[in-house]
Amino acid sequence: MKVAVIGTGYVGLVTGVCLAERGHEVVCVDMDAAKVAAINQGIPPIFERGLEPLLQRNVADRRLRASTDLPAAIAGADLSLIAVGTPFDGRQIDLTQIRTVAREIGAALATRDGYHVVVVKSTVVPGTTDDVVRPILEEASGRKAGVDFGVGMNPEFLTEGEAVSDFMEPDRIVLGGIDARTIAVLEELYASFTGVARVHTNNKTAELTKYTSNALLATMISFSNEIANLCAAVGDVDVVDVMRGVHLSRYLSSVLPDGSRVAPGIVSFLAAGCGFGGSCLPKDVNALIAHGARAGVPMDVLKAVIRVNERQAGRMLRLLGRHFASLAGVRVAVLGLSFRPDTNDMRESPAVPLVEQLLAAGARVAAYDPAATAEARKVFAGQPVRLCGSLEEVVADAEAVLLVTRWEEFRRVPALIERLERPPVLIDGRRFLDKRSVARYEGIGL
Fold this sequence. Notes:
By secondary structure, the chain is α/β, with parallel strands linked by helices.
């Protein structure tokens, strides 16, 4: 198929590259000429594990190209995927980009022949595709949805850092549409994804499925953190041991005939830490709370999920306070700035408020992240944060080390600390390292 993907952020670019890898002819559209030029040179404007080699291969094979010309992309496509941002402004998701793109696609449909399907891939609250996108498309094109063109909703379930493998080997594909013809075109798009469970539904259900999935993961994280905080308050209890016992439940793991045990990936969200971040979970949970309020449903559980998460990064400062009466002048190394490993995305990362709180307390902050240094320069512009180029550099003269992100490279931290003349205290915000691996260890839920 010939596919136009509108938007080249984490969702749009990964989607475009992976569809090209599956044999489709893809045009990625973005108004940022610099991003378009980089993509056409095989240079991804984002860091995502495994993305660059796929991009380079498909650009070289001419299955993928980028363009700023949306009308031309729509004119030559069988299907278009809207993958632009939908930020949350504190009251509701901002549909400015969705509306703009829908209007531009509609105008392009007015001058083209043949049936075209417009699919929303951005995360939008229930009703957006039918009540916002569809009317704009009809008005701008002068044509009728369901007759002249199709309208669908195909939510993404991509985890940053694992997005390429998530797309290429999905656990399910949700296909929403206004009619059977729209669904049929989407089925053609995913025809090569054999053996994957499909959900055929209407657009509202597809929209809410994405929000519900993310809300569940966020709830599991905040639940785990609330238990961790209780463990710390009770004393002589380690949340890691508690959760190990929980994970062994037959509801959360299975014993194979050979006696080995396997657990589904979801149990990784039943683990304590310094909170969730990123472009999805905080935004989506808050958007669902706001949407529920407009519908007269208070969403009390999700409100509690957000409250627990907002306080969690501060737990690391409390642990640090056990070792320093004042943080003024204390040399603190922050390990990890991206909200999770294998990505450079710092949106809603717990590292950001943590660093700001350390600076406000007078600490001398150095930080290191294997991928997010360039992004950190923008986030902390004008603030006295020393961004280091290696793990060795950031811990060299630290009095305290705060581990925020589960980068595999940080497994080396205990060995590095052990060699130092004055080993720092380690505050493990992810319970990533063995608590016996360093002499002075503090961890969430311990």
